[in-house]
Write a structure and sequence with these properties.
Blueprint: E1 2-7, H1 8-22, E2 26-29, H2 31-35, H3 39-52, E3 59-64, H4 67-79, E4 86-89, H5 96-105, E5 108-111, H6 114-127, E6 132-138, E7 146-147, H7 159-162, E8 166-171, H8 180-201, E9 206-208, H9 212-221, H10 249-254, E10 261-265, E11 269-272, E12 293-297, H11 306-309, E13 314-318, E14 321-325, E15 327-332, E16 335-339, E17 348-350, H12 355-363, H13 367-377, E18 380-385, E19 391-397
Parallel strand pairs: 1-18, 2-3, 3-4, 4-5, 5-6, 6-7, 6-8, 8-9
Antiparallel strand pairs: 1-10, 10-17, 11-12, 12-16, 13-14, 15-16, 18-19
Helix pairs in contact: 1-3, 4-5, 5-6
Length: about 400
């Protein structure tokens, strides 16, 4: 048995917690199938529940990776009676036909390049100037967006596009760093662009500046004044109770945002071994001196690259206490080894609060990558509160 258990109740609690601490409506980042967690399940069991409990003001909208994801999400919302939620496409493709279809259906594209601005400008002639568009400003990350410097010069060609449609909001993605001064510098750059855009348009678009990392950093540092520069917040991975980096784990915990994912496995086989014996396909890995029993578990290349999996420890809680079980050797295709002190097979679990961030720090990967890889490849089981407050298990969903 191997399953990734998703606590939808905890995700619901995390979102409420972010809103309560900031009093800002949320644009939820649900890209890549909600980081593999399951877009449909989040929409059906979390977003819809917020609406049913008259907390619509919490959710300003949802942001998806591309037009295809946005189409799928908006179709579900429309058929479920949740049409008041905006649906944004963050990585809008440079495809006029697809953008036209998206606009007609109600998807709101994020324009992050001159090519997309040109397409939208052409479509405004066909569809009207009330197209709802969001503009990304690059404040120093140099990934997506029109550079903030473009808005300093009235001779820049960007001004020829902005009055062609309804500019609903401006956004950026912050460089992640330890210093609050770096955050302040990017806010200053963004505000300079915002002031010039507002002067040019004659109205101020809405602003969503902060994703997961800046939200935690602002709250941790006590600089809630910085929240005043953003009308909307854009939480991503912290919605699921995972920090963008190891340095922000304690900040997340102090704010009451907890992990919602647990990896559970039951060994396929328990074997007695002798130190020095071979372990796996090759002869280059042997049983360590301290080990005389191992377990074979159903996790391998399909779930995680070995560079990450070699740091994936498991825990087993018994009447004699909690045991931490270390990984051993290399993958054997779909299986791997762990040291194992028990005679019988027991349920083991991993990804306890903070473990994803620890592994990402050790491997130089990102917590997002670990969550996405595991959640996309493993069967998932969802937990949700019943009316009486008790948790119930929902059906297991297949991977992908």
């Amino acid at each position: 048995m191997r399953v990734l258990e998703i606590d939808l109740e905890q995700i619901y609690t995390n979102l409420k917690r972010i809103y309560q601490m900031t009093s800002k409506p949320l644009l939820l980042v649900l890209k890549n199938n909600a980081y593999g967690i399951g877009l449909r399940e989040i929409l059906e069991k979390v977003i819809s529940r917020l609406f049913l409990h008259s907390q619509e003001e919490m959710i300003w909208g949802i942001a998806l990776r591309d037009l295809e994801e946005a189409f799928s999400a908006l179709h579900y919302l429309k058929t479920s009676g949740l049409e008041g939620i905006r649906v944004l496409s963050l990585m809008t493709e440079h495809d006029e036909k697809r953008i036209r279809e998206a606009l007609r259906f109600g998807v709101e594209p994020v324009a992050y390049s001159y090519e997309i601005l040109e397409i939208l400008s052409d479509l405004a002639d066909e569809l009207g100037t009330n197209l709802r568009v969001h503009l990304k400003v690059d404040t120093g990350m140099n990934r997506f967006g029109i550079s903030w410097r473009e808005f300093l010069d009235r001779s820049s060609r960007v001004w020829g596009f902005l009055n062609r449609f309804n500019l609903v909001s401006l956004l950026t993605h912050m460089i992640e760093g330890e210093d609050i001064e770096l955050l302040e510098m990017q806010v200053e750059r963004f505000n300079t662009a915002l002031e010039n855009i507002t002067s040019f348009l004659g109205y101020r678009p809405l602003v969503h500046l902060y994703s997961s990392s800046p939200i935690l950093k602002i709250l941790e540092s006590g600089r809630e004044d910085l929240l005043n520069f953003s009308d909307i917040l854009r939480p991503g991975i912290i919605s699921y109770g995972i920090s963008p980096s190891l340095t922000l784990v304690e900040a997340r915990r102090k704010l009451g945002i907890r992990s919602s994912v647990t990896l559970k496995v039951i060994p396929l086989q328990v074997k007695d071994v002798r130190p020095g014996e071979n372990l796996g396909y090759g002869s280059d890995v042997t049983v360590p001196d301290r080990v005389n029993r191992i377990a074979v578990i159903p996790l391998g290349y399909n779930e995680l690259p070995r560079s990450i999996g070699r740091y994936l420890k498991f825990r087993c809680d018994t009447s004699d206490g909690s045991f931490i079980l270390n990984p051993l050797g290399k993958y054997c295709m779909d299986c791997s080894f762990i040291e194992y002190p028990f005679l019988e097979k027991k349920e083991l679990y991993a990804l306890w609060d903070g473990q994803v961030e620890e592994i990402s720090e050790l491997t130089g990967s990102a917590p997002h990558e670990i969550l996405l890889r595991l959640a996309s490849s493993l069967p998932k089981r969802y937990r949700l509160s019943t009316e009486g407050g008790n948790l119930k298990l929902l059906k297991v969903a297949s991977s992908g």
